[in-house]
Amino acid sequence: MATVLIAGCGYVGTVLGRLLHLNGDVVFGLRRNISRLPSFVHPLRADLAVSSSYQVIPAEVDEVVYTVSADAFSPESYRRAYIEGLVSLLSVLESRGDQKPRRLVYVSSTSVYGQTGGELVDETSPTESSHFSGRVVLEGERQALGSSIPTVVVRFGGIYGPERTRLIDQVRQGAGCVSRPIRYTNRIHRDDCAGVLAHLLRLKSPRPVYLGVDDEPAPRCEVMRWLAGQLGVPLDEYVDAISIRSNKRCSNHRLRTSGYQFVYPTYRDGYGAILG
Length: 276
Description:
Number of strands: 15
Strand content: 15-25%
Mean pLDDT: 94
Strand order of the largest sheet: 3-2-1-4-5-7-12
Distance between the termini: 35 Å
């Protein structure tokens, strides 16, 4: 049994909390609005922007999962969430000497990669994002990995699942897709996000970085075409010589070989479960 702190206990964190609770762990969830936390998570009210509020953290925490999200798509919001909040939390945890956690898992993003030509990407590929979001999240990784707490970074692809059905809604509402040029996308179901985090907390000798994506990177238009077939609606496809900001195929080989078994290994499995 372990005492686990989930900082930013929201969409993914609450599902992780359930898995840990069922495993017999004691789970604390840290967030600004604690009213949404389920009963099996011990609530801790704190604000990322106020470092002193982190003093609510229990004296002894075995493991920490940092799974926050920015409240707006702006450089300021990203820095506050992925760097400033993390630095404040690390300051509190590192000050505890022998009572420091034995592991920190930092939730990052595949946005740290800047590839645009459909390249196959793994944990050793260059991280040269041209956008602020990828650069800020990458700096957060460096802060976590450079701390005195043993850290594992997981770079999740696009997270979907219950209540996150934007692509389904777009197809249902008649949105078209660009079939040429091909743009690869990478995703992972919410339940597998939680499963991966639980797996990395318990892994005996983890690597520093893992890619958290399912087995099948796929062109966006292919996914939309499949959804249209399931929904029984038409899908307009067209060619557009647009500028592609991100176009890569992320590999989960390292995660797979570590022993993780996916609940939803492809987009068909995950979206199929949502559609019922």
